[in-house]
Write a structure and sequence with these properties.
By secondary structure, this protein is an alpha/beta fold. The chain has 17 helices and 18 strands. A 10-stranded mixed beta sheet has the order 5-6-4-1-7-8-9-12-11-10, with helices on both faces. Strands 15-14-13-16-17-18 form a 6-stranded parallel beta sheet, sandwiched between helices. Helix 3 (about 85-105) packs across helix 4, helix 10 (about 260-270) packs across helix 13 and helix 11 crosses helix 15.
């Protein structure tokens, strides 16, 4: 329920700014529209921080031309930023997801560069900055999230130099040789340097950013510090370093220990015909996730007789993503064609070899799937972190199950007891799948115990506290030369 007392407040000491609000507008079975918590890693990661800080969240409400007043939902003050259909097409689907996303993911798909997309990106970023500046208390902390809003830190600093500004990049930051293709490369780096602390998923990403700063501007960098000239003849100190994001481990484990969730996991196994091995992939339907590569490897295992229907089933959850972008429409067609071919060739009436599910699920159902799966496949071609890998580990309180993890996902830096793979190496991927299936129980337990220890040590509370502590101590005052 919305609280009139809370909505009357005009300023907040802690503000999160992200492309989306942490809620979606849905129509219930009773026909009444209401807000519900959004799925996704960012909302999951920031939810505990927001509740502890009594802060505000600035973001788009998820539908075009939705011009709403600020409101309170689940204890958080939400400030909607309206977007027109054309702005969604140019700023979001265009520049964010057809220019920056493929560029930052090692050009797995070719990026498109259009000046009108860039103009929309600038305009929308300014709108987010203005909305944030309006509700920020004097000296407030503002934490800007992700690649859609890389210009906001500088825009905010120009309006409100009193603010402490953080930015966290949830996706990779590419090597300079790739980044340099961006026609607006200087403007984006300048935008990010408006922050006091710029966080990345991996040490390599922070290094790539610092190198881009040196190449483009020649500023002095001494890891993790970048010295940025100010307008008074001095310098500001900007910190650029890795803060690997994580999950709320306890909440996942609590769900996994519920008897009804464990019963649901057993029902999933029964519904799939009780195969000896269930492999599971959980991804947004995106070309960076390596879904085609794992289907190819699995298909070759079926072809070679290494496994068969009734023995192994691959469950692939592919939640819808960016469905109006051409590359994503083509990817969906390719994957569904491949799944159809595999089932048509190798399945029996009672035993599919691939169970393909093109929709999202609530957290409880996902936990049941994690418990049902013997082998978790995370074969991203490039991924900032991949929280699914950590969620699987958090749910396996039985200390069983095998994680097959791409070395190109940020999670590989931490989860070294997974079976690490290069998803481009199909033969190597096949070997890893067979190793996972045939792994002795003692080795599974040893590996999972180590993985669980690592995920527990670095949970979401530690991630946010580490970033915010660094931000609190960041020096954003000018220092004379």
């Amino acid at each position: 329920m919305t609280s009139p007392a809370r909505t009357s407040r005009s300023s907040y000491d802690f503000i999160v700014v992200s492309n989306r609000l942490p809620v979606d507008r849905v129509v219930g079975l009773d026909g009444v529209e209401r807000w519900q918590r959004s799925p996704g890693g960012l909302v999951t990661a920031l939810e505990p921080v927001m509740k502890a800080s009594d802060g505000a969240w600035v973001g788009w409400a998820g539908k075009p031309d939705l011009d709403l007043d600020p409101f309170v939902e689940d204890g958080t003050y939400l400030v909607p930023v309206p977007l027109s259909p054309l702005e969604i097409e140019h700023y979001y689907e265009g520049f964010s997801n057809d220019t920056l996303w493929p560029l930052y993911h090692d050009v797995i798909a070719p990026p498109s560069f259009h000046r009108e997309w860039w103009d929309a990106y600038v305009e929308v970023n300014q709108r987010f900055a203005d909305a944030s500046a309006r509700i920020a208390a004097p000296g407030a902390t503002v934490w800007v999230q992700d690649y859609q809003l890389q210009l906001v830190p500088k825009m905010l600093r120009e309006q409100r130099p009193d603010l402490t500004i953080g930015f966290f990049n949830h996706i990779p930051f590419p090597p300079y040789g790739i980044y340099a293709q961006l026609p607006w490369r200087r403007q984006v780096v300048e935008g990010l340097l408006g922050a006091d602390v710029i966080g990345f998923q991996r040490v390599a990403d922070a290094g790539n950013f610092s190198r881009a700063v040196r190449r483009l501007f020649g500023y002095a960098t001494r890891t993790p510090e970048i010295r940025v000239p100010d307008d008074k003849g001095g310098h500001r100190s900007v910190i650029a370093k890795a803060f690997p994001i994580s999950i709320d481990v306890e909440s996942f484990e609590e769900i996994a220990r519920r008897p009804e969730i464990q019963a649901r996991a057993q029902q999933i196994r029964d519904d799939l015909g009780n195969p000896a091995t269930i492999m599971l992939g959980v991804d947004r339907l995106d070309y960076t996730k390596g879904i085609r590569h794992r289907l190819k490897a699995f298909g070759e295992l079926l072809r070679d007789g290494e496994t068969q229907a009734g023995q192994t089933v691959l469950v692939q959850v592919a939640s819808p993503s960016r469905e109006r972008v051409a590359a994503y429409m083509q990817l969906r067609d390719e994957i569904e064609l491949t799944v159809g071919r595999l089932n048509g060739t190798y399945a029996t009436i009672s035993h599919p070899v691939v169970s393909y599910l093109h929709h999202g699920y609530p957290r409880e159902e996902m936990v049941a799937l994690y418990l049902a799966a013997d082998v978790m496949l995370v074969t991203a071609l490039r991924d900032g972190m991949n929280l699914v890998a950590k969620e699987y580990v958090a749910c396996r309180h039985d200390e069983d199950g095998v994680l097959v993890l791409s070395e190109f996902a940020g999670a590989a830096d931490e989860l070294k007891n997974a079976l690490l793979v290069n998803p481009h190496d199909i033969d190597g991927l096949k070997e890893a799948l067979l190793h996972a299936v045939r792994m002795p129980h003692r080795e599974r337990t040893t590996r999972m115990r180590a993985l669980r220890r690592r995920v527990r040590e670095n949970d979401v509370a530690r991630w946010s506290q580490s970033f915010l502590d660094t931000l609190r101590h960041a020096n954003h005052h000018s220092d004379a030369r």
